[in-house]
C-alpha cells in the first residue's frame, strides 16, 4: 500500500488496490510505479498550466516484456532495470527502448538526475549519459552532452554499493564508506568546501571514517546517512532542506542535530525537501520546502528543522518499508505481514548492495569440489566473473572486525591479510582451479586495470595479487604473471603509485616481508638461470622498479614497523664481475636519465646486492677511476668494448720519513692536487726506492695508531677511552679533519682495513642515515640510559624532574632551544627533548668538523658507491671484524718453493701456532697482514703464502710482507726454536716497520 503527499496538506492513501506498487525516486515531472510483480510500470507526468499551477496528469500504464525490478525517474524521462540486468529507457512519449553501448554487461543499479542518468554494472563499472552542462557526467572538462552511455573510468576498480543523482550533480558510495561527488556545486552540494563545479569525481574527504551507508541527492542539496543512524546534509539551505534551523548554504557536510539519537535508517531528498525515516519508531521526519504540501505536516509552509510527518491512522498496524521523495512530492510504501519482507527485499535490491559477490573461502571450496565434475563450467564462469573484476577483488577480504574497513586510508588498506592468505592457500590446493585463476588475472584483469582510478580502495588489487603470485612461486610456476603484475603497478599514475607506496609503508612487517619475497623470488629465479651474464629485458627492469618502490616505502614507514634492509638482499645471487663492470658503466652513462628511459641497471638497486657484490662494485668502480678506459668505444646503444688495452694508471706517491710520519703525510696531502687522490697509492719510506706498495699497510697501520690517540688532540673519547668522536670545540685546525677524511677514503679506496674506534653513528653519517639514541648508547651508555629513563618516566611526573632543554657536552652547557632559554622538559615534549639531545651530539655539535671530514673522504671515494653499504657493512669493510677462524686460515694457506703441507717445518709451524694464545694468534695476523682484524667477508679472504726465507739460518726471525700476506719462514732445527723465533718476530717486528 502506498501513501503519498502531493499538493496536499498531509499524507493520503494513493492507491489501495495496487498491491505490488513500488514508487521510484521521484523527480520534477515524472512519477513511476512498478506494478504487477514487475510486469507493468505506471507513469504519471506532473504538468504546469498557464498560471504556473502544477497538477498530476493521468496515470498511464506501460507493459514490459521483461520483469522490472528497479527504476529511477528524471525530469522528463525514466530508466528501468530488468531482473536480467538489462536497462530500458522510457521517453516523453512513454515508449520503452533498450539502452545500447553496454557490451552485454549486466547492470545492478540505475539513477537519474534532471537531465542525466547513471548506471552501475555487475563488474563494477559506472556509465553516465545525458546533459553535461555542469559536469554531471563526470567525464572531464570539454566533454559534450551525450545520449550514449560512456564509462566513468576514474571510478574503475572501486567496490561501489550505491550510485545516485540529483538535479545536476551525482554521487557514488563505496563499500568502505568513501563518498565521491561530481557535477554542479554552486551551492556546495558536493560537500567539498567550495562552490566550484567538478567535471570529475572528487572524494568528499570530510566524510572519511564516518561509515557512510546511504546518499540521497536533491535539486541542489545532498543528504548522507551513516551506519550509526546519523544524518549529514550540505548544499543549498534555501527553504530549509538541510534541517539546521537555518536557510544558509553549507559547503561541507554538517550533522542534522535535531535527528541525533533517533537512529535514522533511511533518507530521501526531493527538489527542495528532505525525508528521514526512523525504523525503530516507524516515524518519518520531513523538512524543507512545503509549498506543495510535500512535507506532509498538514500545512503548506516551509520548515528548517525535522518534524514528524502526520501519517494517517490506518498506518498504525503497518510497517513502513521505504520512503521516496520527488520534486515537490513524497511517498511511503507500507504493507502488512509476510508481504512486507518480500517487497522490502525487492526494493533494496538496487540500493546498498555490493555489485558482485565477494571471493571467500566458502566459494573457493565450492570451486575445488566442482572442478572435476560436469558443473565445472559454471565454476569457470564464476572465476572469470570475479577474478576479471578489480572491484570484486577490491571488495573482498575486508577487515570487518570493529568495522575497520571503514577506516580505509593510505595508511590503512582495509584488508584482512589473514583472509587473503587463507583464500589463496586454498586455491593452491587444486592446480586446475589455480591455473584458471592465473589465466583470468593475466589475460583479463590486468589489461582492464585503469591507471588513474581515484581512492585507496581501487589499489587493494595490487595488495591482493602478490599473495596469488606467492602461491604460484611455491609451485615453481613461471614468472610471466609476476612480471605482468609488476608492469601493471608501474603503469599507475605517479600520484597513485605514491598512494600505493603509502599503503605498502603501513603494512605489518610480516606482510611486508612476504610482499618483498614475491618480487625477489621472481627476480632471483631469472638471474640464477643465467649462467654467464644476467639479461636486461623489460621484465627484469619492471621487477627491479617495483622492488625500488617497495624499498622507498619501507624507508618511509613507521619506525617500529620497518623491516630490516637485509630483507631485500638476494644473498643467493652472485653477479659476474664482467657484468658488474658493464653495469657500472651504464650507471654512469645514464645517471641523469629517468629510469623509464634506460635499460635495467642493477647499480640503481644496491639494496638487492649481497655484500660481496657491493664490495666488487666498489673495487671495480675504483679500478675504472684509477685506470679510466682509454678511447674505449660504445657499441650499439649501450654496450662497451671491454677488451681494448688501457694505458698504465698513474699513481699517487707519498715519500715519508718514519720519524715525522704525521707531519710529512699531512704536508704532502695538503699540497697535492685533489684530483690525484683517486690514483693508486704508493708509499716510500726514508728514500728507500727499492720498495713501493709493500709499505702501504704498514703506513695505514702506524699512521692511524698515532692519529687516534688522545694525545693527538683531534678527537674526544668516551669514559672508557675505547671510542672516539669529533669534538664540539676542536683543538686543531679544521683542515686536519679534511685530511683525516682523505686518509680514511684512501684506506678504503686502496683496500686497507684501518683502526677506526668510532661508534656506529660515524658510519651512519657517511651513508646519510640519521644516528639514533641506540648509537648514543654505544658511545655513552650512562648518558643514553638517562635519556631512556626520561622517555620511560610516567607522563604525570615528568614535570617534577625540573629538567630543561640543555646538554652538558665537552665541559660546556648548551641550550638545545636557543629561542626559549630554560625551556622545561614536559610529558608533551620529552621525546622532542631526547631527539634534540641526540641530534646535538651527533650532528649539530660536530657540523663544521664533520663536514670537513666528509669533504675529504668523498674527494677519494665516490659518495653514491659508498652509500651502497649499510652502516654495519661499511664499518666491517673499513675496520674488519673479530670472528677469527684459524682453521680456515690453515686450510687456505698456499706453500711455495720447497715447502708443502707435509714438510716437517710446516707441520711444526702449525703445531706451534695451535699452542699460541688467542692474543698471540691475533698478533701473528697483524704481523702477517698489517691488521689484527678479519675482513668482513671472513677469513676466506686471507690466503697466507708461506715460502722459505732465502739465505737464512736458525738465528733469523720469520719475516712477513703484509701487502701480500706472505710469510717467509726459515727452516728451524726444532719446535722450540721455531716457537721462540716466531714469538719474538710477532711481538717486536711488524713487517718492515721496525727492522
Describe this structure in words.
- It is a single chain.
- By secondary structure, this protein is an alpha+beta fold.
- It has five domains: 2-350, Regulator of chromosome condensation 1/beta-lactamase-inhibitor protein II (Methylamine Dehydrogenase, Chain H), CATH 2.130.10; 361-565, no CATH class; 574-649, no CATH class; 651-755 and 859-879, Hect, E3 ligase catalytic domain fold (Alpha-Beta Complex), CATH 3.90.1750.10; 886-988, 2-Layer Sandwich (Hect, E3 ligase catalytic fold).
- It contains 27 helices and 41 strands.
- Strands 3, 4, 5, 6 and 7 form a five-stranded antiparallel beta sheet that branches. A four-stranded antiparallel beta sheet has the order 2-1-29-28.
- Strand 21 (221-226) and strand 22 form a beta hairpin.
- Helix 2 packs parallel to helix 5 (417-427).
- It is elongated and about 130 Å long.
- It starts with a strand and ends in a 7-residue tail after the last helix.
- One of its GO terms (cellular component) is cytoplasm.
- The active site is at 963 (glycyl thioester intermediate).
Amino acid at each position: 500500500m502506498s501513501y503519498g503527499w502531493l499538493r496536499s496538506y498531509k499524507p493520503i492513501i494513493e492507491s489501495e488496490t495496487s498491491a505490488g506498487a513500488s514508487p521510484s525516486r521521484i523527480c520534477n515531472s515524472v512519477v513511476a510505479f512498478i506494478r504487477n510483480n514487475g510486469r507493468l510500470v505506471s507513469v504519471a507526468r506532473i504538468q504546469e498550466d498557464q498560471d504556473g499551477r502544477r497538477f498530476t496528469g493521468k496515470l498511464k500504464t506501460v507493459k514490459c516484456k521483461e520483469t522490472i525490478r528497479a527504476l529511477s525517474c528524471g525530469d522528463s524521462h525514466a530508466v528501468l532495470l530488468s531482473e536480467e540486468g538489462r536497462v530500458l529507457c522510457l521517453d516523453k512519449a512513454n515508449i520503452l527502448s533498450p539502452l545500447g553501448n553496454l557490451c552485454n554487461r549486466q547492470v545492478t543499479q540505475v539513477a537519474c538526475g534532471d537531465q542525466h542518468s547513471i548506471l552501475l554494472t555487475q563488474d563494477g563499472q559506472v556509465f553516465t549519459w545525458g546533459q553535461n552542462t555542469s559536469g554531471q557526467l563526470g567525464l572531464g572538462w570539454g566533454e559534450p552532452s551525450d545520449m550514449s552511455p560512456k564509462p566513468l573510468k576514474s571510478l574503475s576498480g572501486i567496490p561501489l554499493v550505491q550510485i545516485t543523482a540529483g538535479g545536476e550533480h551525482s554521487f557514488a558510495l563505496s563499500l568502505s564508506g568513501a563518498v565521491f561527488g561530481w557535477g554542479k556545486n554552486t551551492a556546495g552540494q558536493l560537500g567539498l568546501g567550495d562552490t566550484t563545479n567538478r567535471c570529475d569525481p572528487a572524494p568528499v574527504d570530510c566524510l572519511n571514517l564516518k561509515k557512510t551507508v546511504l546518499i540521497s541527492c536533491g535539486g541542489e542539496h545532498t543528504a548522507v546517512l551513516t551506519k550509526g543512524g546519523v544524518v549529514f546534509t550540505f548544499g543549498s539551505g534555501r527553504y530549509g532542506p538541510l534541517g539546521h534551523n537555518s536557510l544558509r548554504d553549507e559547503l561541507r557536510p554538517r550533522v542534522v542535530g535535531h535527528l541525533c539519537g533517533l537512529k535514522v535508517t533511511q533518507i530521501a531528498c526531493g527538489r527542495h525537501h528532505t525525508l528521514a525515516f526512523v525504523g525503530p519508531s516507524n516515524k518519518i521526519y520531513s523538512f524543507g520546502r512545503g509549498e506543495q504540501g510535500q512535507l506532509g505536516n498538514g500545512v503548506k509552509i516551509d520548515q528548517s528543522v525535522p518534524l514528524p510527518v502526520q501519517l494517517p491512522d490506518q498506518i498504525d498496524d503497518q510497517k513502513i518499508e521505504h520512503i521516496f521523495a520527488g520534486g515537490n512530492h513524497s511517498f511511503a510504501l507500507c504493507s502488512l505481514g509476510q508481504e512486507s519482507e518480500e517487497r522490502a527485499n525487492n526494493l533494496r535490491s538496487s540500493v546498498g548492495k555490493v555489485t558482485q559477490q565477494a571471493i571467500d573461502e566458502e566459494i573457493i571450496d565450492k570451486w575445488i569440489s566442482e572442478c572435476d565434475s560436469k558443473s565445472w563450467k559454471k565454476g569457470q564462469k564464476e572465476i572469470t566473473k570475479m577474478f576479471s573484476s578489480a572491484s570484486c577483488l577490491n571488495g573482498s577480504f575486508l577487515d570487518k572486525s570493529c568495522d575497520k574497513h571503514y577506516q580505509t586510508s593510505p595508511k590503512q588498506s582495509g584488508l584482512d591479510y589473514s583472509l587473503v592468505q587463507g583464500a589463496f592457500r586454498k586455491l593452491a590446493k587444486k592446480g586446475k582451479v589455480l591455473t584458471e585463476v592465473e589465466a583470468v588475472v593475466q589475460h583479463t584483469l590486468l589489461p582492464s586495470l585503469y591507471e588513474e582510478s581515484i581512492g585507496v580502495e581501487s589499489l587493494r588489487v595490487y595488495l591482493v595479487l602478490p599473495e596469488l603470485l606467492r602461491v604460484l612461486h611455491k609451485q615453481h610456476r613461471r614468472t610471466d604473471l609476476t612480471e605482468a603484475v609488476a608492469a601493471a603497478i608501474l603503469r599507475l599514475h605517479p600520484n597513485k603509485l605514491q598512494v600505493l607506496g603509502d599503503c605498502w609503508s603501513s603494512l605489518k612487517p610480516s606482510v611486508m616481508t612476504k610482499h618483498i619475497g614475491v618480487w625477489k623470488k621472481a627476480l632471483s629465479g631469472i638471474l640464477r638461470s643465467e649462467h654467464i651474464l644476467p639479461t636486461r629485458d623489460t621484465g627484469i627492469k619492471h621487477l627491479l622498479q617495483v622492488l625500488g618502490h617497495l624499498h622507498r616505502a619501507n624507508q618511509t614507514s613507521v619506525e617500529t614497523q620497518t623491516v630490516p634492509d637485509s630483507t631485500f638482499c638476494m644473498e643467493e645471487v652472485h653477479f659476474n664481475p664482467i657484468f658488474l663492470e658493464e653495469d657500472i658503466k651504464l650507471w654512469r652513462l645514464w645517471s641523469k636519465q629517468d629510469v623509464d628511459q634506460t635499460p635495467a641497471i642493477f647499480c640503481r638497486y644496491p639494496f638487492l646486492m649481497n655484500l660481496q657484490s657491493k664490495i666488487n662494485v666498489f673495487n671495480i668502480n675504483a679500478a675504472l677511476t684509477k685506470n679510466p678506459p682509454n678511447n674505449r668505444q660504445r657499441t650499439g646503444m649501450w654496450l662497451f668494448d671491454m677488451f681494448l688495452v688501457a694505458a698504465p694508471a698513474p699513481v699517487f706517491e707519498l715519500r715519508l720519513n718514519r720519524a715525522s710520519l704525521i707531519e710529512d703525510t699531512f704536508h704532502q696531502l695538503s699540497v697535492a692536487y685533489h684530483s690525484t687522490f683517486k690514483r693508486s697509492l704508493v708509499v716510500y719510506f726514508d728514500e728507500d726506492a727499492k720498495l713501493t706498495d709493500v709499505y702501504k699497510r704498514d703506513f695505514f697501520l702506524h699512521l692511524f695508531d698515532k692519529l687516534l690517540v688522545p694525545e693527538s688532540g683531534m678527537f674526544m673519547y668516551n669514559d672508557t677511552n675505547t671510542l672516539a668522536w669529533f669534538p664540539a670545540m676542536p683543538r686543531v685546525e679544521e683542515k686536519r679533519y679534511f685530511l683525516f677524511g682523505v686518509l680514511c677514503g684512501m684506506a678504503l679506496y686502496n683496500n686497507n682495513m684501518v683502526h677506526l674506534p668510532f661508534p656506529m653513528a660515524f658510519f651512519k653519517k657517511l651513508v646519510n642515515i640519521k644516528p639514533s639514541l641506540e648509537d648514543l648508547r654505544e658511545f655513552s651508555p650512562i648518558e643514553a640510559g638517562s635519556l631512556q629513563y626520561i622517555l620511560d618516566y610516567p607522563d604525570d611526573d615528568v614535570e617534577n624532574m625540573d629538567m630543561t632543554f640543555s646538554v652538558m657536552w665537552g665541559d660546556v652547557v648548551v641550550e638545545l632551544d636557543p629561542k626559549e632559554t630554560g625551556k622545561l622538559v614536559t610529558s608533551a615534549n620529552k621525546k622532542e627533548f631526547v631527539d634534540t639531545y641526540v641530534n646535538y651530539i651527533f650532528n649539530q655539535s660536530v657540523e663544521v668538523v664533520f663536514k670537513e671530514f666528509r669533504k675529504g673522504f668523498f674527494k677519494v671515494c665516490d659518495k653514491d658507491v659508498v652509500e651502497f653499504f649499510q652502516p654495519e657493512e661499511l664499518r666491517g669493510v673499513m675496520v674488519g671484524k673479530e670472528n677469527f677462524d684459524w682453521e680456515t686460515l690453515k686450510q687456505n694457506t698456499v706453500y711455495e718453493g720447497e715447502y708443502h703441507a707435509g714438510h716437517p717445518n710446516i707441520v711444526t709451524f702449525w703445531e706451534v701456532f695451535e699452542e699460541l694464545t688467542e692474543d698471540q694468534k691475533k698478533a701473528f695476523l697483524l704481523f702477517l697482514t698489517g691488521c689484527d682484524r678479519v675482513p668482513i667477508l671472513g677469513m676466506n679472504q686471507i690466503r697466507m703464502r708461506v715460502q722459505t726465507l732465502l739465505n737464512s739460518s736458525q738465528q733469523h726471525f720469520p719475516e712477513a710482507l703484509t701487502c701480500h700476506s706472505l710469510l717467509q719462514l726459515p727452516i728451524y732445527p726444532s719446535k722450540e726454536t721455531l716457537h721462540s723465533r716466531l714469538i719474538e718476530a710477532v711481538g717486536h717486528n711488524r713487517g718492515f716497520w721496525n727492522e
